[in-house]
Specification:
The structure holds two protein chains of two kinds.
Chain A (H helix, E strand, L loop, with lengths): L1 H40 L5 H23 L5 H15 L2 H13 L3 H28 L2
Chain B lengths: L4 E10 L3 E2 L2 E2 H11 L5 E5 L2 E2 L7 E2 L10 E8 L1 H11 L7 E8 L14
Antiparallel strand pairs in B: 1-7, 1-8, 2-3, 4-7, 5-6
Chain lengths: 137, 116
Protein backbone atom coordinates (compact mmCIF):
# COMPACT_ATOMS: atom_id res chain seq x y z
CA UNK A 1 0.00 0.00 0.00
CA UNK A 2 2.78 2.41 0.95
CA UNK A 3 4.60 1.68 -2.31
CA UNK A 4 1.43 2.40 -4.27
CA UNK A 5 0.85 5.69 -2.47
CA UNK A 6 4.47 6.68 -3.14
CA UNK A 7 4.11 5.81 -6.77
CA UNK A 8 1.08 8.06 -7.01
CA UNK A 9 2.99 10.96 -5.50
CA UNK A 10 5.95 10.36 -7.79
CA UNK A 11 3.74 10.49 -10.89
CA UNK A 12 2.09 13.65 -9.66
CA UNK A 13 5.59 15.16 -9.32
CA UNK A 14 6.60 14.01 -12.81
CA UNK A 15 3.47 15.58 -14.25
CA UNK A 16 4.44 18.92 -12.72
CA UNK A 17 7.84 18.65 -14.36
CA UNK A 18 6.25 17.95 -17.77
CA UNK A 19 4.04 21.04 -17.36
CA UNK A 20 6.96 23.13 -16.07
CA UNK A 21 9.36 22.23 -18.87
CA UNK A 22 6.66 22.28 -21.57
CA UNK A 23 5.31 25.61 -20.34
CA UNK A 24 8.76 27.19 -20.43
CA UNK A 25 9.33 25.89 -23.96
CA UNK A 26 5.92 27.17 -25.11
CA UNK A 27 6.48 30.60 -23.55
CA UNK A 28 9.82 30.97 -25.30
CA UNK A 29 8.19 29.95 -28.60
CA UNK A 30 5.49 32.59 -28.08
CA UNK A 31 8.13 35.22 -27.33
CA UNK A 32 9.98 34.36 -30.56
CA UNK A 33 6.98 33.93 -32.88
CA UNK A 34 5.12 36.93 -31.45
CA UNK A 35 8.19 39.13 -31.72
CA UNK A 36 8.91 38.01 -35.28
CA UNK A 37 5.34 38.57 -36.53
CA UNK A 38 5.01 41.93 -34.74
CA UNK A 39 8.33 43.05 -36.19
CA UNK A 40 7.15 42.16 -39.70
CA UNK A 41 3.73 43.88 -39.45
CA UNK A 42 4.40 47.22 -37.80
CA UNK A 43 2.85 48.79 -34.74
CA UNK A 44 -0.77 49.55 -35.78
CA UNK A 45 -2.35 46.25 -34.66
CA UNK A 46 -1.25 43.50 -32.19
CA UNK A 47 -0.64 40.99 -35.01
CA UNK A 48 2.04 39.18 -32.99
CA UNK A 49 -0.36 38.06 -30.25
CA UNK A 50 -3.08 37.47 -32.84
CA UNK A 51 -0.81 35.16 -34.85
CA UNK A 52 0.26 33.29 -31.70
CA UNK A 53 -3.37 32.75 -30.65
CA UNK A 54 -4.52 31.49 -34.05
CA UNK A 55 -1.49 29.27 -34.65
CA UNK A 56 -1.80 27.87 -31.10
CA UNK A 57 -5.42 26.95 -31.79
CA UNK A 58 -4.46 25.25 -35.05
CA UNK A 59 -1.71 23.32 -33.26
CA UNK A 60 -4.00 22.13 -30.45
CA UNK A 61 -6.61 21.05 -33.01
CA UNK A 62 -4.02 18.90 -34.78
CA UNK A 63 -2.28 17.58 -31.67
CA UNK A 64 -5.32 16.94 -29.45
CA UNK A 65 -7.00 15.00 -32.26
CA UNK A 66 -3.88 13.12 -33.20
CA UNK A 67 -2.90 12.24 -29.65
CA UNK A 68 -6.35 11.12 -28.49
CA UNK A 69 -8.16 9.82 -31.58
CA UNK A 70 -5.49 8.65 -34.00
CA UNK A 71 -2.78 7.22 -31.78
CA UNK A 72 -2.38 5.61 -28.38
CA UNK A 73 -0.20 8.42 -27.03
CA UNK A 74 0.57 8.26 -23.32
CA UNK A 75 -1.23 10.72 -21.03
CA UNK A 76 2.19 12.11 -20.07
CA UNK A 77 2.89 13.10 -23.68
CA UNK A 78 -0.54 14.75 -23.87
CA UNK A 79 0.09 16.66 -20.64
CA UNK A 80 3.51 17.81 -21.91
CA UNK A 81 2.34 18.96 -25.36
CA UNK A 82 -1.24 20.13 -24.81
CA UNK A 83 -1.13 21.56 -21.29
CA UNK A 84 2.60 22.36 -21.08
CA UNK A 85 3.92 23.50 -24.47
CA UNK A 86 0.67 24.77 -26.03
CA UNK A 87 -0.64 26.13 -22.72
CA UNK A 88 2.60 28.08 -22.32
CA UNK A 89 2.48 29.18 -25.97
CA UNK A 90 -1.06 30.51 -25.49
CA UNK A 91 -3.91 29.62 -23.11
CA UNK A 92 -6.09 30.72 -26.01
CA UNK A 93 -5.42 27.25 -27.45
CA UNK A 94 -7.06 25.62 -24.38
CA UNK A 95 -9.96 28.05 -24.69
CA UNK A 96 -10.19 27.17 -28.40
CA UNK A 97 -10.31 23.40 -28.02
CA UNK A 98 -12.73 23.52 -25.08
CA UNK A 99 -15.11 25.84 -26.92
CA UNK A 100 -14.83 23.65 -30.02
CA UNK A 101 -15.75 20.56 -28.00
CA UNK A 102 -18.84 22.34 -26.70
CA UNK A 103 -19.75 23.18 -30.31
CA UNK A 104 -19.13 19.59 -31.39
CA UNK A 105 -21.60 18.33 -28.81
CA UNK A 106 -24.12 20.99 -29.91
CA UNK A 107 -24.04 22.84 -26.60
CA UNK A 108 -24.55 26.18 -28.33
CA UNK A 109 -25.40 28.23 -25.26
CA UNK A 110 -22.37 27.02 -23.29
CA UNK A 111 -20.08 27.50 -26.29
CA UNK A 112 -21.33 31.05 -26.87
CA UNK A 113 -21.24 31.75 -23.14
CA UNK A 114 -17.62 30.59 -22.93
CA UNK A 115 -16.52 32.58 -25.99
CA UNK A 116 -18.36 35.81 -25.22
CA UNK A 117 -17.86 35.47 -21.47
CA UNK A 118 -14.09 35.01 -21.86
CA UNK A 119 -13.73 38.15 -23.97
CA UNK A 120 -16.12 40.26 -21.88
CA UNK A 121 -14.86 38.87 -18.56
CA UNK A 122 -11.25 39.29 -19.67
CA UNK A 123 -11.76 42.93 -20.66
CA UNK A 124 -13.71 43.59 -17.46
CA UNK A 125 -10.81 42.08 -15.50
CA UNK A 126 -8.31 44.33 -17.26
CA UNK A 127 -10.50 47.37 -16.70
CA UNK A 128 -10.96 46.58 -13.01
CA UNK A 129 -7.21 46.08 -12.65
CA UNK A 130 -6.40 49.35 -14.40
CA UNK A 131 -8.90 51.28 -12.28
CA UNK A 132 -7.64 49.64 -9.10
CA UNK A 133 -4.00 50.39 -9.90
CA UNK A 134 -4.83 54.02 -10.72
CA UNK A 135 -6.91 54.50 -7.59
CA UNK A 136 -4.08 53.57 -5.24
CA UNK A 137 -2.91 56.81 -3.72
CA UNK B 1 -10.77 -22.83 -28.75
CA UNK B 2 -13.16 -21.31 -26.24
CA UNK B 3 -16.09 -23.37 -24.93
CA UNK B 4 -19.52 -21.90 -25.63
CA UNK B 5 -19.87 -21.12 -21.93
CA UNK B 6 -17.03 -18.67 -21.26
CA UNK B 7 -16.20 -15.87 -18.86
CA UNK B 8 -15.88 -12.18 -19.63
CA UNK B 9 -13.25 -10.41 -17.56
CA UNK B 10 -13.37 -6.64 -17.46
CA UNK B 11 -10.68 -4.44 -15.97
CA UNK B 12 -11.44 -0.75 -15.47
CA UNK B 13 -8.40 1.46 -14.83
CA UNK B 14 -7.09 4.93 -15.67
CA UNK B 15 -4.81 5.25 -18.70
CA UNK B 16 -2.08 6.78 -16.52
CA UNK B 17 -2.06 3.70 -14.29
CA UNK B 18 1.55 2.48 -14.40
CA UNK B 19 3.38 -0.59 -13.23
CA UNK B 20 7.19 -0.41 -13.12
CA UNK B 21 7.27 2.58 -15.45
CA UNK B 22 5.02 1.19 -18.19
CA UNK B 23 1.29 1.64 -18.85
CA UNK B 24 -0.64 -1.02 -16.93
CA UNK B 25 -3.06 -1.67 -19.81
CA UNK B 26 -0.16 -2.58 -22.13
CA UNK B 27 1.24 -4.95 -19.55
CA UNK B 28 -2.14 -6.61 -18.99
CA UNK B 29 -2.48 -7.12 -22.77
CA UNK B 30 0.99 -8.66 -22.95
CA UNK B 31 0.33 -10.84 -19.90
CA UNK B 32 -2.90 -12.17 -21.45
CA UNK B 33 -1.06 -12.98 -24.67
CA UNK B 34 1.83 -14.64 -22.83
CA UNK B 35 -0.59 -16.76 -20.82
CA UNK B 36 -2.27 -17.95 -24.03
CA UNK B 37 -5.70 -16.36 -23.47
CA UNK B 38 -8.13 -16.39 -26.40
CA UNK B 39 -8.01 -12.63 -26.94
CA UNK B 40 -8.09 -9.22 -25.32
CA UNK B 41 -9.32 -5.76 -26.30
CA UNK B 42 -8.25 -2.43 -24.83
CA UNK B 43 -10.77 0.42 -25.06
CA UNK B 44 -10.35 4.04 -24.03
CA UNK B 45 -13.39 5.90 -22.77
CA UNK B 46 -14.15 9.55 -23.38
CA UNK B 47 -15.35 10.19 -19.82
CA UNK B 48 -15.87 8.49 -16.49
CA UNK B 49 -15.30 8.39 -12.76
CA UNK B 50 -14.24 5.74 -10.29
CA UNK B 51 -13.60 5.18 -6.60
CA UNK B 52 -12.25 8.69 -6.08
CA UNK B 53 -15.45 10.20 -7.55
CA UNK B 54 -13.30 12.53 -9.64
CA UNK B 55 -14.71 13.08 -13.13
CA UNK B 56 -12.34 12.52 -16.05
CA UNK B 57 -13.46 13.78 -19.44
CA UNK B 58 -11.89 14.42 -22.84
CA UNK B 59 -13.99 17.58 -23.06
CA UNK B 60 -12.06 19.65 -20.53
CA UNK B 61 -8.32 19.68 -21.16
CA UNK B 62 -7.36 19.75 -17.48
CA UNK B 63 -9.64 16.79 -16.70
CA UNK B 64 -8.46 14.73 -19.69
CA UNK B 65 -5.15 13.57 -18.24
CA UNK B 66 -6.37 10.21 -16.92
CA UNK B 67 -9.14 8.93 -19.18
CA UNK B 68 -10.74 5.56 -18.42
CA UNK B 69 -9.37 2.39 -20.01
CA UNK B 70 -11.30 -0.89 -20.15
CA UNK B 71 -9.61 -4.20 -20.96
CA UNK B 72 -11.93 -7.03 -21.96
CA UNK B 73 -10.78 -10.64 -22.00
CA UNK B 74 -13.00 -13.61 -22.82
CA UNK B 75 -12.00 -17.23 -22.34
CA UNK B 76 -12.84 -20.46 -20.51
CA UNK B 77 -13.44 -19.99 -16.77
CA UNK B 78 -10.25 -21.94 -15.83
CA UNK B 79 -8.05 -19.76 -18.06
CA UNK B 80 -9.52 -16.56 -16.59
CA UNK B 81 -9.17 -17.87 -13.02
CA UNK B 82 -5.53 -18.74 -13.66
CA UNK B 83 -4.87 -15.26 -15.06
CA UNK B 84 -6.37 -13.29 -12.17
CA UNK B 85 -3.63 -13.70 -9.53
CA UNK B 86 -0.98 -12.60 -12.06
CA UNK B 87 -3.07 -9.69 -13.25
CA UNK B 88 -4.11 -8.16 -9.94
CA UNK B 89 -0.60 -6.94 -8.91
CA UNK B 90 -0.29 -4.98 -12.20
CA UNK B 91 -2.92 -2.44 -11.21
CA UNK B 92 -3.06 0.02 -8.31
CA UNK B 93 -6.53 1.53 -8.24
CA UNK B 94 -9.24 0.07 -10.44
CA UNK B 95 -12.15 -2.31 -10.80
CA UNK B 96 -12.20 -5.91 -11.98
CA UNK B 97 -15.45 -7.68 -12.86
CA UNK B 98 -16.30 -11.13 -14.08
CA UNK B 99 -19.45 -12.33 -15.83
CA UNK B 100 -20.75 -15.22 -17.88
CA UNK B 101 -20.31 -14.91 -21.61
CA UNK B 102 -21.88 -17.03 -24.30
CA UNK B 103 -19.42 -17.36 -27.14
CA UNK B 104 -21.21 -17.32 -30.50
CA UNK B 105 -18.29 -17.00 -32.91
CA UNK B 106 -14.56 -17.24 -32.34
CA UNK B 107 -12.48 -17.78 -35.45
CA UNK B 108 -9.79 -16.33 -37.66
CA UNK B 109 -10.52 -14.88 -41.08
CA UNK B 110 -9.23 -18.03 -42.79
CA UNK B 111 -11.87 -20.16 -41.02
CA UNK B 112 -14.77 -17.93 -42.05
CA UNK B 113 -17.37 -19.48 -44.37
CA UNK B 114 -16.56 -18.67 -47.96
CA UNK B 115 -12.88 -17.96 -47.26
CA UNK B 116 -10.59 -19.46 -49.89
Amino acid sequence: MAARANRGRLQCGMRWIWVFVGGGTGSLLRYLVGGWVQGATGAAFPWGTFAVNVSGCFAIGVLATWLTERSAATPELRTFLLIGVLGGYTTFSTFGIETWRLLESAEWLRAAGNALGSVAGGLAGVMAGVLLARSVP
Amino acid sequence: MIPREGKLLRIFIGESEHHRGRPAHEQILELARREGLAGATVLRGIAGFGRSSRIHTAKILRLSEDLPVVIEIIDAAEKIDALLPKLEPLIGGGLITLERAEVVVYRSKADAPGAS
